[in-house]
Amino acid sequence: MITILHGALGSAHQFEPLRSTLGLPSQVITFHGHGGTADVDQPWDIELFSRQLELELESGAHQQPAQIFGYSMGGYVAIDCALRRPDLIGRIVTLGTKLHWTQEGAEHETLKLNPDVIESKVPAFAADLARRHGESAWKTVLHKTADLMRTRRTTDPNS
Q1: Which string of b and e fits 19-45 if b means at least 16 CB within 10 Å?
Q2: For residue 27, what are the β-bridge partners?
Q3: Rg of the chain's alpha carbons, rounded to an integer?
Q4: I need a labelling partner for 18 at 20 to 30 A (CA). Which of 25, 35, 38, 132 fits?
Q5: What is the pLDDT of residue 60?
Q6: What residues make up the domain containing 112?
Q7: Would you say residue 16 lies in a domain?
Q8: How many domains does the chain have?
Q9: pLDDT tens-digit map of 72-83
């Protein structure tokens, strides 16, 4: 079984076409607050989602050691979990997981996560995010993701 982890603005729904095309047993883990799932009353960070993955893998619902495909932030989460619990994860394949972050780069990326700007300039994307996460939750996903990016550890030793 392949365990699939979505990106920061993603949800399980995005991977349905891939899952049906692959025709392999797979399961998508939807992170807290994404795709209509319940949020947690705390800031988001990679460790939060990594611990969520760890608990999911420990539950026995997944093949051990897990074979993980992580898209973007999902790749970060898989790597973080594997560093803490190598016994749970056998292989990780990532796509779009940016491994080199600077504070300036993170700030630049967070500018793209303004819900008001997205609604006015890219209304189709705003509508997609509302469908993906729920009309009342998509802006929270953007805000909490921006906060995650601002507070994450950077990979630049000079930052």
Answers
A1: beeeeeebbbbbbebbbebeeeeeebb
A2: 3
A3: 16
A4: 38
A5: 78
A6: 2-151
A7: yes
A8: 1
A9: 999 999 999 999
| pLDDT of the residue at 37 | 96
> Residues 134-148: what's their mean pLDDT?
96
Determine the pLDDT at residue 151.
84
DSSP string, 28-54: EEPPTTSTTPPP-SS---HHHHHHHHH
Measured CA to CA, the distance from residue 13 to residue 28 in angstroms comes to 9
The CATH code of the domain that includes 14 is 3.40.50.1820
Asked if residue 159 belongs to a domain, the reply is no
Which among 91, 83, 1 has a CA at the least distance from the CA of 47? 83
Q: Which two tokens stand for residue 1?
A: 């079984």
Amino acid at 23: G
Residue 33 lies in a domain: yes
pLDDT category of residue 150 using cuts at 50, 70 and 90 = confident
Determine, yes or no, domain membership for 47. yes
C-alpha dist (Å) from residue 121 to 17, 52, 116, 118? 28, 34, 9, 5
CA 140, CA 145: separation in Å to the nearest integer?
8
